[in-house]
Amino acid sequence: MTHKHAGASLSGKWMSFAATTAITFMLGTAAASAATVVKWMHVELDPKAVAVWEEIAKDFEAKHPDVDVQLQFLENEAFKAKLPTLLQSNDVPDFFYSWGGGVLEEQSKTGALKDLTELFDADGGKIRNAYNPASIEGLSFDGKVWAVPYRVSLVSFFYNKELFAKAGVKAEDIKTWDDLGTAVKTIKAAGIVPIAGGGGEKWPIHFYWSYLVMRNGGQAVFDAARKGEGEGFMAPAMIKAGEQLAEFGKLEPFQPGYLGSTWPQALGVFGDGKAAMILGFDNTEANQRKNAGDGKGLAPENLGRFAFPAVEGGAGKATDTLGGLNGWAVTKNASKEAIEFATFLTNAENEKKMAKAGMILPVAVGASEAVTNPLMAGSAKQLSESTWHQNFFDQTLGAAVGRVVNDVSVEIVSGQMTSEEGAQQIQDAFELR
C-alpha cells in the first residue's frame, strides 16, 4: 500500500487541523486505498528523522499490505494548542506524540485514550518486558499503561569549544553552580554572549529553576510538593532555588532580547556561534544545525557538553537528571493494526535504527548499544548513571501548574518577581488545579 506523510491530502477535520501547519508529501506510487488507515501524529520534522520513519512504515506496510500508514505533522506549539479539540473530533489520530507526566495523565482521564495495560501484560508481559521499566513507569498512572514508550531525553549544557577557548574557560572546571556563574562572568568579559536563551516560549527557562530545585532539595522535596505534602512549593529548597536563579539573572547571561526569543531562535543563536552555551536536549547538535542561519551550524567537533552543575550543600545529587519521557499515546478507537504498528515502530530493531541515526536515546531493551553519535552517547552514559531521572516539571505537574512554573521561571530570572512570590504562585496554582 502507498504510505503517505499526510497533511493537506487528508480530508475533513483531520485536514483542517493540518492545513496551515502540516507539511505534505507522498512517497512511492499511487495505490488502491488500504483497508485500514493508520493515522500517526508527531511534532518533529527533521528530514533525517522522517526518512527513517518512512522506511519503518514501509517495512510494516510490506508485511501488512492491507494497511496504509499516514504521518501527520503539527509544529510543537500548534500541536499542544489543537490536540485537545482534535481528540474530540471525528477524525482523531490513532496515536500521537505524548509527553509523560501530568499532561498524559490528564488525557487519560478524559476517556480519549486506550488503556494498554492488558496488551502490555499479555503473553507473560512480552511487550512490557521489551522496554526499560522506567519508561513504562513514566507513562503509567494508577497501575495502568497509557502510552507506548518511544524515547527518553536529557537536558544538559552544550558549548562552543572555540568560544570557550577564546574566553579561556574549560568545561571540565564547571562542577558547581558557582563555577557556572564564574564562567559566565569570564565569557562576558571576553565580549561573548555566555548563553542562548529562549525566554519567549518560557519553558526553556524552566529547566534552570527545575534543576536548581532538584540540586537543592533532591527527590524527596519535589515528590512531597507534587503530592501536596509538607510545605509544598514553599519549601526552603524551592525558595533557595529561585534566589539562586534570580542572582544568576543579574549576571545577564543570555543574549539581548532573549525574553522574546523562541526556542528555534535560541538554537539559531547558538548554531550561528553567537553564544557560548545553551541548556538543551540531547538532540541539540542536530537542532542547532537545522536552525542556524547557514543551515550547517557548528561543526560536531566544535561541540561539547557537560552536566548541569551541582549545588554545594544541596540535598540533590550531581547525578540526578532532568529530561523527558516520550511515548505514543493510543486513542480509544484505534484499530489493532494501529497498535501493532506503534509497538513495531518502537521495537528493539527499529529503535536501533533511530538511535544509529542520532534521533533518539532509545527505551527498547537492547537498543542503547546503537547510539554512536559521541554527544548522544555522552548523554546516554549520563542517563545510565542517573540516580533520579525527573520528567520535565511543566509536564509532570500538568498543564495548569506547568504554565505557572514556566511563567515564574522567566519572571524570576529577569528580575520581575522574587523567589518567594514565584513559589507562592506555583503553590496557589497547585492548590487550585
Automatic annotation (TrEMBL):
Residues 1-34 form the signal peptide. One of its GO terms (cellular component) is periplasmic space. It is found in: Periplasm. The keyword Hydrolase does not apply. Its main location: periplasm. Keywords: Periplasm, Signal. InterPro entries: Bact_solute-bd_prot1, SBP. This is ABC transporter substrate-binding protein. It comes from Agrobacterium bohemicum. The lineage of its organism: Bacteria, Pseudomonadati, Pseudomonadota, Alphaproteobacteria, Hyphomicrobiales.
